[in-house]
C-alpha cells in the first residue's frame, strides 16, 4: 500500500492549502463614540468640577462676551438700574443733609438741586444726569460743593458703564464665528487616487463675495491611542499636511477648493485599507482660519469627518464652469461625488506593489468602455425603435385605396 504522501502531493495537502489561502483580517466591531468636533464646528466638550471659579471674574469683559444673549441683556439692564438707584440715593442724602426736604425751609433757603422733594424726584434727576436728558425742571445750584462732586462722579461712572456695555454688545454682534457661518465644508470626504497616490480630499467654499485673507487649512487626526508604556491617551491629536503645505497651508479661497492630503509614509492613514477604515474610530478635524476682509477680525471655521463620512473610491465632481466670459459656481453640486476606480488596499500595500494600481486602472478603463458601449447600444436601439414607430405611424396615417365593383361584373374602379 502506497503511503499517503506519495498519493497526494505535499503542496496540495490540506495544511499547505490552508496556510497559502488568503486570510481575511478580523476586525472588532466599532463602538459608536462621541465626536470631538461637531459638523457645525462646535466643540463637544463639557467642563466639570471647576473649583477655581474666581478666575472668570478676573477677565470680566471676556466673561460678559462669552455669556448668552439673555444673560447679557439682563446684566445690561440691571447695571443701569443699579447705578441710577445708587446715585438717586446719593442725591436724596445730599438733599436731606442740606435740608431741602424740609418743607418749612424750602421757601427761605436755596436748594442744592431744585425740585428734589422726595426719593422719586431724586431718582428722576439721577436718570437725567446719567443719560443727559435734562428736562429742565430739576437742576443743580452752586450752593452745595458736595452736589457738584456727586455730579462729576455720576458722569464718570455713566461713561464707564456705557463704554463697557456697548463694547460688550458690539463684540457679541461682531464675533468671528458669525463670519464662519458662510464658510462651508462638504458633508462627505473622499479617498481616491490622484497623481498615482492615494489622497484624502475634502471641499471648502465661501458663500460671500468678500474674501478671507491669508486663509489657511489645518488637518488633524484625533484618535484614542496607547503608548508602549501603557498610557492611554483618549484624545491624541496628530497634525497632517495638505497638498498646499507651502507658506503654512495658505490658500486663495476665491472659489471652492478641494483640499488634498497625500497619504504617504508620514501619514497616520498610511496603514488603513478600505475595510479597516470602516472599523476604525478615528476622526479627522479640518480647521480653516483667516482674516475677514471687511472687518479685519480673525475667524475660524471647523468641522470633522468620522469613518462613516469618508467615501473610499469617490471623487468630487467639478462645479466651476465658464459661462459667457464669467466663471460660474454651481453650489447645488458642492458635495456631489462620483465613483472612480480605486484599489481597496492601504497606501503601504500600494507602495509595495505598484502593479495593484495598474490593474485597478485597467479594470476601471474596461468597465468604463463597457458602460460606454452599453450606453451607445441603448441609444441605437432606442433610435431604431423610434424610427420603426414613426414608420408604423406613417403607414397607419396613409389613405387606403377603395375599390368599387359594378353589379354587372364590369371593370373595377379604384379610388384613393
TrEMBL record:
Domain Inward rectifier potassium channel C-terminal: 183-353
Annotated site residue numbers, Role in the control of polyamine-mediated channel gating and in the blocking by intracellular magnesium: 162
Superkingdom, taxonomy of origin: Eukaryota
Alphabetized Gene3D superfamilies for the sequence: 1.10.287.70, G protein-activated inward rectifier potassium channel 1
Broad class of where this protein is predominantly found: membrane
Record region (Disordered): 365-392
Keywords: Ion channel, Ion transport, Membrane, Phosphoprotein, Potassium, Potassium transport, Transmembrane, Transmembrane helix, Transport, Voltage-gated channel
Listed transmembrane segments: 71-94, 146-170
Topology class, membrane: Multi-pass membrane protein
Pfam families for this protein: IRK, IRK_C
Feature: compositional bias, Polar residues: 379-392
GO BP terms: nervous system development; potassium ion import across plasma membrane; regulation of monoatomic ion transmembrane transport
Name the UniProt record assigns to this protein: ATP-sensitive inward rectifier potassium channel 8
Amino acid at each position: 500500500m502506497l503511503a499517503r504522501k506519495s498519493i497526494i502531493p505535499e503542496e496540495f495537502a490540506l495544511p499547505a492549502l490552508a496556510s497559502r489561502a488568503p486570510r481575511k483580517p478580523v476586525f472588532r466591531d466599532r463602538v459608536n463614540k462621541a465626536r470631538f468636533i461637531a459638523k457645525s464646528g462646535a466643540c463637544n466638550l463639557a467642563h466639570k468640577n471647576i473649583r477655581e471659579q474666581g478666575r472668570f471674574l478676573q477677565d470680566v469683559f471676556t466673561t460678559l462676551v462669552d455669556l448668552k444673549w439673555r444673560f447679557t441683556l439682563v446684566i445690561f439692564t440691571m447695571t443701569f438700574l443699579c447705578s441710577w438707584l445708587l446715585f438717586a440715593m446719593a442725591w436724596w442724602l445730599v438733599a436731606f443733609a442740606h435740608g431741602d426736604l424740609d418743607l418749612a425751609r424750602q421757601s427761605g433757603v436755596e436748594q442744592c438741586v431744585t425740585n428734589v422733594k422726595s426719593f422719586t424726584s431724586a431718582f428722576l434727576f439721577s436718570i437725567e444726569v446719567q443719560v443727559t436728558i435734562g428736562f429742565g425742571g430739576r437742576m443743580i445750584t452752586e450752593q452745595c460743593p458736595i452736589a457738584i462732586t456727586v455730579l462729576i462722579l455720576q458722569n464718570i461712572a455713566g461713561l464707564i458703564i456705557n463704554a463697557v456695555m456697548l463694547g460688550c454688545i458690539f463684540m457679541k454682534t461682531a464675533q468671528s464665528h458669525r463670519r464662519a457661518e458662510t464658510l462651508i465644508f462638504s458633508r462627505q470626504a473622499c479617498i481616491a487616487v490622484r497623481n498615482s497616490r492615494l489622497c484624502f480630499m475634502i471641499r471648502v467654499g465661501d458663500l460671500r463675495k468678500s474674501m478671507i485673507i491669508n486663509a489657511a487649512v489645518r488637518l488633524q487626526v484625533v484618535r484614542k491611542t496607547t503608548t508602549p508604556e501603557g498610557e492611554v491617551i483618549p484624545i491624541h491629536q496628530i497634525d497632517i499636511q495638505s497638498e498646499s503645505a507651502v507658506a503654512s497651508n495658505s490658500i486663495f479661497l476665491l472659489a471652492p477648493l478641494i483640499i488634498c492630503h497625500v497619504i504617504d509614509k508620514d501619514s497616520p492613514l498610511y496603514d488603513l485599507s478600505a475595510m479597516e477604515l470602516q472599523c476604525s474610530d478615528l476622526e479627522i478635524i479640518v480647521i480653516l482660519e483667516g482674516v475677514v476682509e471687511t472687518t479685519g477680525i480673525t475667524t475660524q471655521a471647523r468641522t470633522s469627518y468620522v469613518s462613516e463620512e469618508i467615501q473610499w473610491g469617490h471623487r468630487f465632481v467639478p462645479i466651476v464652469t465658464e459661462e459667457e466670459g464669467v466663471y460660474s459656481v454651481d453650489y447645488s453640486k458642492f458635495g456631489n461625488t462620483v465613483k472612480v476606480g480605486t484599489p481597496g488596499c492601504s497606501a503601504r500595500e500600494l507602495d509595495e506593489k505598484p502593479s495593484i494600481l495598474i490593474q485597478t486602472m485597467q479594470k476601471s478603463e474596461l468597465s468604463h468602455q463597457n458602460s460606454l458601449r452599453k450606453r451607445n447600444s441603448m441609444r441605437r436601439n432606442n433610435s431604431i425603435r423610434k424610427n420603426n414607430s414613426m414608420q408604423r405611424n406613417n403607414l397607419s396615417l396613409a389613405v387606403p385605396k377603395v375599390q368599387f365593383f359594378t353589379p354587372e361584373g364590369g371593370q373595377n374602379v379604384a379610388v384613393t
